[in-house]
Amino acid sequence: MTFYKYQGTGNDFILVDNRNGAYSGLTESQIKNLCNRRFGIGADGFMLLNEKEGYDFEMVYFNADGREGSMCGNGGRCIVQFAHDQGIRKTTYHFIAADGPHDATIEDGEIALKMKDVEGIRAYKTDSILNTGSPHYVQLDPDVMQLDVFKEGKKIRYSKDFAEEGINVNFVEVKEPDHLIVRTYERGVEDETYSCGTGVTAAALVFHHNDNGFNAVNIETLGGKLTVRYRRETDGSFNNIWLKGPAIKVFEGQISTEVL
């Protein structure tokens, strides 16, 4: 199997061109093995680039545990760069993922991805819950770089309200109104990742600095910097949400199906 490895701010993915359907039959166990950092290639997730009528392509995303996942923002940016590298050249890309259609552009060597609209934010105790294509829990932390994200994130993810369906847990430090530091424990990976695109999007919406109108937020993650820009409406909903950052091809290769 020919594969390609991409990363977006340290969030890394295995991608394969599946437009001929050759890899549609991969099992949960096989995908889990591919993502294993000891016995496989190693990645936070696995993606198929599929043909889809009416779209430039379809993004099918699997978590590192081998199960098909919900939307992945950094994965979405990486698959756009992958599509470009595979010869799909567009001014604006229009593709479909688990949470519906997305647009994307390549701007100044980075990928800007339009995320789904968000109806609102739900309070949970002193924290916040929202869905930005994947479900997210957002908690303020005054010194996020000193936090044990694995321990604290796992505690919330496996608490009684979230254990069954799972939730991604984001810890956010507000440096300035338009500058956040975000660390994320991701379900499906069941560990902290270097970056989470839907997670930083969730953090930006929760800590919006303009009550209504346009916002632009710079976000630091362990793996690098991202930008989220969006519009907040008077009813508390959000639209025109764009996640922008780098998407880098790391290497390509072939893996024997025997190891799967």
Mean pLDDT: 97
Query: Could you give me the name of the CATH homologous superfamily of the largest domain?
Result: Diaminopimelate Epimerase, Chain A, domain 1
Count all strands and give the number.
17
Give the end-to-end Cα distance, rounded to a whole number of Å: 11 Å
- Strand percentage lies at 35-45%
Structural class: alpha+beta
Low-confidence stretches: none
Q: Largest beta sheet, briefly?
A: 17 strands, mixed
Query: What is the CATH C-level name of the largest domain?
Result: Alpha Beta
CATH topology of the largest domain: Diaminopimelate Epimerase, Chain A, domain 1
Oligomer: single chain
Taking all Cα atoms into account, the compactness measure Rg is 18 Å
CATH architecture of the largest domain: Roll
Give, in order, the helices and strands.
EEHEEHEEEEEEHEEEHEEEE
What is the count of helical runs? 4
What is the general shape? globular
Structure, explained:
With 260 residues, the protein is α+β, with helices and mostly antiparallel strands. The protein folds into 2 domains: 2-115 and 247-252, Diaminopimelate Epimerase, Chain A, domain 1; 122-242, Diaminopimelate Epimerase, Chain A, domain 1, CATH 3.10.310. Helices cover 15% and strands 43% of the residues. It has helices spanning 28-35, 73-85, 149-157, 197-206, and strands spanning 2-8, 11-17, 45-50, 57-63, 93-97, 100-107, 110-114, 122-124, 127-131, 135-140, 168-176, 179-186, 191-193, 213-221, 224-232, 238-245, 248-254.
Topology diagram in text:
Layout (H helix, E strand, L loop, with lengths): L1 E7 L2 E7 L10 H8 L9 E6 L6 E7 L9 H13 L7 E5 L2 E8 L2 E5 L7 E3 L2 E5 L3 E6 L8 H9 L10 E9 L2 E8 L4 E3 L3 H10 L6 E9 L2 E9 L5 E8 L2 E7 L6
